C-alpha cells in the first residue's frame, strides 16, 4: 500500500459559491466548502467515510493516483490509514480474520474490532498486526499546503 494521501480537485461553484471537491480515486467522494481550508477538511472526512464504507463492503481500497495539475493532496486521518492498511494487507496476503487472530494470539472478535472503522483501536495494536503481515508503519510529518 502506498501513502494514504489522495489528490482532490476543487472546482469553483458559480451558483452557490465556494468549491465542489471530488476525488478521481474515489468516485463516491463529493463534498463542498466555502474556503480552501473548509474544502480540505471536508475532503479528509469524506475520504475517511469512503474508506470505511469500502472496508465494511469488502471492496478494494485504491492506491493514490499521481496528482494532476490543479489538484490538492489530502491525507486520510491516521487511525483510518492504519485500519485501511491492515485491511488491504490481509486481502493481499489472503489472510483471514481468524488466521490473523491465531497469529496474534487474540480472539477473532478482537480482529473484527481492529478492522471496524468506528472502533477506536489503538495504533500499537494495528502496528503489531501489520508487522505480522510483513508491513512496517512509517509516519511522515509535513507542512500543510
Q: Your description of this structure?
A:
The protein is an alpha+beta fold and 145 residues long. The protein has 2 domains: 71 residues, 2-Layer Sandwich (Double Stranded RNA Binding Domain); 55 residues. Helices cover 44% and strands 14% of the residues. It has 5 helices and 4 strands, in the order βββαβαααα. A 4-stranded antiparallel β-sheet has the order 3-2-1-4, covered by helices on one side. Helix 1 runs parallel beside helix 2 and helix 2 runs parallel beside helix 5. It is elongated, with a radius of gyration of 17 Å.
Task: Produce the secondary structure layout.
Layout: E1 5-12, E2 19-22, E3 30-33, H1 36-57, E4 71-75, H2 78-93, H3 97-104, H4 108-115, H5 123-132
Antiparallel strand pairs: 1-2, 1-4, 2-3
Keyphrases for this structure?
single chain; about 140 residues; alpha+beta; Double Stranded RNA Binding Domain; 2 domains
Low-confidence stretches: none
Order of helices and strands: EEEHEHHHH
* Helical percentage: 40-55%
Overall pLDDT, averaged? 93
How would you sum up the major sheet? Answer: 4 strands, antiparallel
Shape: elongated
- End-to-end Cα distance, whole Å, is 23 Å
Proportion of strand residues: 5-15%
Using the coordinates above, name the CATH class of the largest domain: Alpha Beta
- In total, the number of domains comes to 2
**How would you classify the helix and strand content by structural class?**
alpha+beta
* Gross CATH architecture of the largest domain: 2-Layer Sandwich
CATH topology of the largest domain: Double Stranded RNA Binding Domain
Spatial sequence of strands, sheet with the most strands: 3-2-1-4
* Total helical elements: 5
